[in-house]
Amino acid sequence: MTTAASLPHVLVAEDQASLRLLFAATLQRAGVRVTAVENGLDAVATAERERPDLILLDIGLPGLDGLSVCRRLKSHAATAGITTVLVTARGQPHERAASFEVGADDYMIKPFSPARLIAEVRRWLAGRPTDAAGGTDVTDATNATDAPAAPAAEG
Amino acid sequence: MNAPPPAAMRSAHILAVDDERTNLLLIRRLLEGEGYERVTTIADPRDLLPILLDGEPDLILLDLHMPHLSGFAVLELLGTWLDPEAYVPVVVLTADATPDARKRALAAGATDFLTKPFDAYEVQMRVRNHLQTRLLHRELRSRSQALGGRLASILASVEEVVWSADEDGALTFISEAARHVTGHEPAQLLGQDACAATPTHPDDRPALAGWAAQLRAAGFCEREYRIVRADGAVRWLRTRCRLVGAAGGLAASIHGVSADVTERRQLAEELARRAAQEELDRAKSEMISIVSHELRTPLVSFLGFSELLQFDDVTPEERRVWTETIHNEAMRLTTLVDDLLDVTRIEAGQVRLVPRPCDLIEVVDEALAPFMACGGGARLVRRYDLPGAEVVADAAKLTQVVTNLVSNALKYSPNGGPVTVAVDAGPDGTVRLRVVDEGLGIPAAELPRLFQRFHRVDTAAHSEIPGTGLGLYIVKQLVDLHGGSIAAESDGPGRGSRFTVELRAAAIPAVGVA
Lengths: 155, 514
Hints:
heterodimer, A: alpha/beta, 5 strands, B: 514 residues, 5-stranded parallel sheet, 16 helices
């Protein structure tokens, strides 16, 4: 059995309590350790302190919004290498365009299917296309996270 | 002996009137000897008028006792024949040295009085002095006319009406601009009351009353009001006037400038209308973003958790928490939809009250029951200091008011602080409901906009709490429909909020009535 500390670490920033619960329940099933925060400033602080392997950032965060958080993280060497995914709303195509402008690695749309999210998370952690995600297991994901962690340690 | 008079003076026209031709000859020789070039002498005062018609002389030497027309009579006639604005010195030269003659002549308008036999030097010097005064007077007059002309041409090019009035407000001067501003001929306005010359719009008469008192008290007065122009058009006028106290021989007077500010006001109104429209547009797009966010969140929950519930590895605890979350989100969605429908109905004027006498305390208790049943109950403090809180109200709508205020108080007290709900007697026979919390509080700048539709308090702490900005708007509308009032107070961020609703008490206290 893999210990909690060795699991890939995913940071979720989402202001709605019900959705934080939904993310946590879903991501647990992707075999990762989840930290959930409810605003942009906490997201920045947690990302800088804990250097997670993946960050899911809601765009509509109070205080500092998701786009600003992403821009900040991508402009600092210590956090620039963390795979950062912005969570946008369906029917807001401009949010997707804006996500890439601030350096996001990918975006996901709300509402989402938990099964689909589990597959996507594995892909993001492995840095591989979704089609291969079905075969990804926890151990593979853990190995994959060593890559982005290494340059962070140098910086 | 003495220096000749200056050139300007030598060309002066001097007229001597005396029935004694030797006297005339003597005077002519005397004056021409001085260098005066235009000396006219007449022996018959009846010849005076034709000479005056040729142009006023610069000085007249006049004998008193003459046949046909005495010097006194000539003085009287000169008073009417000569331009009153002109200054023509008349020097009486007479053998009559009686004090009575001197007094009469001076009273009749003589400038000076010399007796015969005269001293040539004295006559020369007096003539020179009086001519000097005459020339100075003429100079001043022409300068003042030039100034007046310049002022008139300036005033003619000024769009504002420039006017003067006496102390009682009667117009003594009004510039040409009055013609297009008021539609009246400026000359016809003279003598009329400065305020009444053009009729003031009936709605603005109360505002204009008391301007005279203010002018007297402060020395200055400014008013903006509408007038009805001669052609019936209503125009906005801004009048500023100043009271100038009596000084230097001039009576106290009022000087004012009145400008037609209709276009400026229309522009300001248009700008205000546009700003209001922009504010509405901004509120609408904010509303759409809030509502779409608030609608989306429960839907994301429903879709996500309903799928998760079908997973094979769901624990009983997860099942319980997720179904509870789905339920809570559904309740939230219901509230949002209800609020939106309420707002739509209120704004369409479709909300009809069913007012019945009811006890506010019973209404409050009923509204609080659901809170007592769940977590909020422990934080509620009830304080009822009124035995019979009878009001005539729609109990269901009033329940909604209490529910919204209490749920807000609980929601915006994330510290879990107490919420006091108090009912007591308010001022002027009202029944008062107060909901007091010790939560986030409200910045002073936000208080005036608190009850606006879709307005949400803009602080970091508030934005973390979900809401649509509809609750207080609905509360205010419902209280208004009841003819009541609602006010919000706060000592500032972090220091809690107080909401006070005042409703008219039912007419007769229900004492001893079942």
